[in-house]
Automatic annotation (TrEMBL):
Pfam annotation, one family: NUDIX-like
CDD domains: NUDIX_NADH_pyrophosphatase_Nudt13
The protein's Enzyme Commission number: 3.6.1.22
Hydrolase in keyword set: yes
Gene name, Swiss-Prot/TrEMBL: nudC
Cofactors demanded by this protein: Zn(2+); Mg(2+)
Highest taxon in the source lineage: Bacteria
Family: Belongs to the Nudix hydrolase family. NudC subfamily.
Protein name as it appears in the record: NAD(+) diphosphatase
Enzyme class: hydrolase
Biological classification of the source: Bacteria, Pseudomonadati, Pseudomonadota, Alphaproteobacteria, Caulobacterales
Amino acid sequence: MAIRNTFAGNPLDRAGDLRNDPEWLEAQEANPEAQAMILWEGRPLVEETPEGPRLAWVSLEHARDMVRDRDLFLGLWKQAPVFAVEFEGSLDPAEGPVRGLGAFHEMRAAAALLPAADAAMAGAAKSLFDWRRRHGFCAACGTMTNTAAGGWKRRCPACATEHFPRVDPVVIMLPVFEGGDEPRCLLGRQAAWPQGRMSALAGFLEPGESIEEACAREVEEEAGLTVVDVRYHSSQPWPFPSQLMIGLIARVSDDQARPDQTELEAVAWLTRAEARAVLAGAHPTIHAPLPFAIAHSLIQAWAEG
């Protein structure tokens, strides 16, 4: 991929067809080379090494000795099976069962520490565990569902409905106005963000809506601007809990932006030089999105022309 955002680039072979075979999956679970990463309430266990922070791995057998009935199959790494297990509850397992193996980090903090492949694997595991917590009962009849396909499916024993992990598509766009003396991009600010933080605009796709239509609607709703052209930039899996961020550059018809005071409390137009200053941390009032967020990539791509 020409552009690979954080949480993308998972190196595992997901074995999407094979994991539906219970006998094959049992063989992977019994494989002495099976490894498991460890999470606690969505936080991955990270160890310090001479090469820097990385995911902490243990044998699947060891992981299941610590956590029962809380594992999922992630895929194959060079034909060796890879799993994840998750602790639940308020007590930090790093002070108990996994003492000495590393420390648990909130996923956003982990994304800033881990190698790209590790962050991608951990993000996928977090999304799957979050989905399992939220979808324990059948949406068709209300019966408690059973795990299948190594955690990638839930099956209702009463009505046989099969449920699959959700991915919620979100458009995230950088509005750009090319009129006037020089091009400018628009950043917006939500009231709940840290002081000075501004970012690209974003919103969920609605049923029956194309990506381009969602982009135009969100820009009009949040900033009162009319989109005249949409260009795709890249996408990003976003495991909070399980979104797909669709990154866009949106050309708008004018620069009369008006924050709606519901989603956005303020907006700011930036020239390319000003956008570069924001990314470098040199702007006097505006702070950039976090470096691992796709919004940062969108601003950087536009600022560098």
